[in-house]
Amino acid sequence: xxxxxxxSRNYGKQHLNAERGTPKQCWCGQPxxxxxxxxxxxxxxxYYCCARGYHKRHLFKLADECLVEEVEDIKPMIRGMNDDxxxxxxxxxxxxxxIEVMKTAHVRKRDECMRNVVVLCVGMAILCYYYFxx
Length: 134
Description:
Blueprint: H1 2-16, E1 32-36, E2 46-50, E3 60-62, H2 63-133
């Protein structure tokens, strides 16, 4: 009786420790191995199983199903990255416009500053003329 309860506990562990994507190890702690099927129904199909070999209550997972799960799991992350990229593109465009505004303002300020320097020089020349010659 204790052996049957032990088996049912192990079977429960298998389902509790089921992981999406490519399995790293069996619920029993043995590493997962990638094996090619030699069965009549799935010849050449890849699957992951417990390093102890295929046992009904140990790890068995088809490799193509693992890849499908990994793609499904990564899709939301890719959508999030696409949203982030769109946000960054908009910010770069906005910052580009701000830079152009700043360049225009800089040119105006530079021209105004040059005008002030010219006015100052002319004023100094007039003052010097009156000071020394008049």
